[in-house]
Design a protein that fits this description.
12 helices; three-stranded mixed beta sheet; 394 residues
Length: 394
């Protein structure tokens, strides 16, 4: 069973995985979320629990030792974890993006064996796609792979490698060769325990998403050429990395928004119990924000269904229309999560504004503001503007 879509077995698998995520969220990630946020530390207890439940290999095919889940399963898991700890959900989401790239594009014996080992050891995968000097454009690299005698070496100045010090391996983008164009990129697997070093160059003291520990590094790695995915990064990005990223990111943002609204709902119900027979003043505002949350949920779920339907159709995945819709998903959800969470805070009033309140929505709001900055919305709008000049209405 690989990537089930609608079968009874697939439904049972999804319920099992989401159930595990809910338990980990309630028992581990949620109770630790405040500490993770205050100390800007990696959510180590959450990932110890995820490893015990074999959740890191959820997308690895069954024949390689994983669960063989679908993208809709991953979306549901990220939403569930996002309701407890956004940093845990974000690290989990970014890990699964890298796993998906290897599952869908690493067809060589080396990568099949690596995925088998990943499933056996529950390795955590990170990525290094951004680079100093390219202005945040992940489709351009300055660093290049240098090859000789069946081996390679690579050095990259990465302004951000999320949870890099806590990862077992990093997928790194680089130019295919020193004489290649900046857009002629490949993805290189850089195992932390073998041939890879990280020299820290910057810290991570941020408004939100503090537990992702997204420090800057000079990354140096070397190894066998087998560690380079054979497909061009442009194809991997269009078919897997971009849609997976936007789907799992928006799914966890939906989790943040869902928990914020749940806190607002609980607050209004508590107010109603104080004065039976009356409608609390914030009830109308709650009705409004629930409508926005439903819109956000429908937007995310619609994108998941579309991608799951066409994920093996390379022509459809490479179409301009699909790229625009995936970009729209990201910018729409990143705006909605801030709007929903801010409205939920206003419903709870000072109790939502206080850090020590059971209705507190402070961390939710700070985490939500990071959504528009992960691949800046202005960059995405600029890309869509260029695409719309040549796109024909469908």
């Amino acid at each position: 069973m690989t990537n089930p879509t609608g079968s009874t077995v697939g439904t049972e698998l999804r319920a099992d995985l989401v159930g595990k995520a809910a338990r980990i969220g309630a028992e581990v990630a949620g109770p630790a979320a405040g500490s993770v946020d205050r100390e800007a530390r990696f959510p180590s207890e959450s990932f110890a629990a995820l490893r015990r439940e074999h959740m890191l290999a959820a997308f690895v095919p069954e024949e390689l030792g994983g669960s063989g889940c679908s993208i809709s399963d991953l979306s549901a898991i990220c939403t569930t974890l996002g309701q407890s700890c956004a940093s845990t959900a974000m690290v989990y989401a970014m890990h699964q993006i890298q796993v998906a790239c290897m599952v869908r594009h690493g067809k060589s014996p080396f990568f099949r064996q690596y995925l088998t080992d990943l499933a056996g050891h529950e390795w955590l995968m990170a990525s290094a796609t951004t680079e100093i000097g390219v202005g945040g454009d992940v489709r351009t690299s300055i660093c290049a792979v240098e090859r000789a005698g069946g081996r390679f070496k690579l050095e990259k100045q990465a302004p951000v490698i999320s949870y890099g010090l806590h990862s077992d391996a990093i997928l790194v983008t680089a130019r295919r060769a020193p004489d290649a164009a900046g857009s002629d990129q490949v993805i290189v697997l850089a195992p932390r325990a073998n041939g890879t070093t990280l020299e820290q160059t910057s810290g991570w003291d941020t408004l939100g998403m503090r537990g992702t520990c997204s420090l800057g590094f000079t990354l140096r790695t070397e190894g066998a050429e087998d560690q380079i995915l054979p497909q061009p990064y442009a194809e991997i990005s269009a078919q897997t990395m971009l849609p997976f990223s936007h789907i799992v990111w928006t799914s966890l943002w939906l989790g943040i928004a869902t928990d914020a609204v749940n806190r607002a709902r609980t607050f209004i119900r508590a107010e109603a119990r104080k004065k039976p027979g009356t409608t609390p003043p914030g009830s109308l505002r709650l009705a409004e924000v629930v409508t926005l949350l439903q819109t956000m949920r429908a937007t995310v779920h619609d994108a998941v269904r579309e991608y799951e339907r066409i994920m093996d159709d390379t022509d459809a995945l490479s179409s301009i229309g699909f790229a625009i819709r995936m970009n729209n998903l990201k910018v729409a959800a990143s705006h909605l999560v801030v709007d929903v969470v801010a409205r939920a805070m206003s419903i709870c009033g000072i109790m939502g504004y206080k850090e020590d309140s059971k209705y507190s929505i402070c961390r939710h709001l700070r985490d939500a503001y990071g959504a528009s900055l992960m691949i800046a919305n202005d960059r995405i709008y600029a890309a869509n503007a260029a695409l719309l000049l040549v796109h024909k209405d469908e």
